[in-house]
Amino acid sequence: MTQKLISTQKITLIIGGILLIVKFGAYFLTHSNTILTDALESVVNVIAGGFGLFSLYIAALPKDKNHPYGHGKIEFISAAVEGILIIIAGILIFGKSLYNLKYPISLHDIDIGIWITAVAGFINYILGTYVEKQGKSASSIVLIASGEHLKSDGYSTLGMVIGLTSILLTDWLWLDSVVAIIFGMIIINSGISIIKSSTAGIMDEVDYKLVEAIVEVLNKNRHPECIDVHNLRVIKYGTALHIDCHITVPWYFNTLEAHNEVKFLEDLLTNNTEKSVEFFIHVDPCLPSSCKICNKLDCTVRKFEMQKQVKWTVENIILNQKHFLSSQK
Question: Staple 291 to which of 2, 41, 58, 302, CB 3.0 to 4.6 Å?
Answer without folding.
Answer: 302
